[in-house]
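Suppose you are handed only these lines of text.
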Amino acid sequence: MIERLNSKGEVRQAVAAARREGKRIGFVPTMGALHDGHLALVRAACTRTDVVVVSIFVNPTQFGEGEDFEAYPRRVADDISHLSAEGVEFVFTPSVAEMYPPDSTVTVDPGPLADRWEGEVRPGHFTGVATIVTKLLSIVRPDVAYFGEKDFQQLQIVRALERDLDLGCTIVGLPTVRDAAGLALSSRNAYLTPEERRQALSLASALNAAEQALAWGETDARALETVMREAVGREGAGAVELEYAAVVDAATLEPVERVEASARALVAARVGTTRLIDNCALVPKAVSGA
Ligand code: AMP
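From them, the structure of the protein bound to adenosine monophosphate can be written out as follows.
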């Protein structure tokens, strides 16, 4: 039976009891409105650790002014029944007041990995992410925490956060789960009309086009970015407003000149009023061995 916990104290007690029994603790932080992408993380946690905690918390501090904090989909009862079916032991559903009492003032600086891309378009977003992730890891103290590559910049920031603040847990990143057409699953896809959903596929098409061009021997990063921009223009039918299409070093997230090793393609765009992001690894032939 899944147990719903609303307070930090209850989580600490539940985890401490499991730990006394020698159990390894897995943790999956989410904002809810769970889909198969979230559930892939949950399944990995359930397979690889003994006791799994999933948090559902729409974190206000990672939303900017004019963003969709109020409108963000909330379906906690449905989410809990999915998590129960997966065999999750504990779901942590704190209130905003539980996570941010009125006297809380300290935030966590996400460092230079947050300077570009999402950090630039959404000022303060990664401070909110770094703060809530640090708090959740401090409360749950898991052995392993699972994050999606879907939010690649976030994943790299969380890895740095764990390393630099000595948080003492293993961070595992798992591949992006897509629907049959290739659209990366996202809670925000719920905002898309059927037509926008088709247009949103242009993000995945752009990534595929970059991978294809690389496979044909194009390693110049600016040329690959042009390939991505053109694909969004073509497939997005003029309705997709591209914010960035970038080829970066996977570790530093800085733009590279040439794809030589461990590069990543990142895209972000607005489809109607919905903001979507996607990314993929870019592996040159010499490295992939193809
Ligand atoms: P969110 O609820 O959007 O904060 O996401 C919670 C976790 O699920 C984050 O680690 C995300 O990167 C991950 N996630 C979201 N969408 C996907 C997806 N399509 N595939 C894999 N992981 C995902």
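What can we learn from it? The pocket of adenosine monophosphate is lined by residues 30-31, 37-38, 40-41, 147-148, 150-151, 176-177, 184-187 (CB under 6 Å). The first strand starts at residue 3 and ends at 5.
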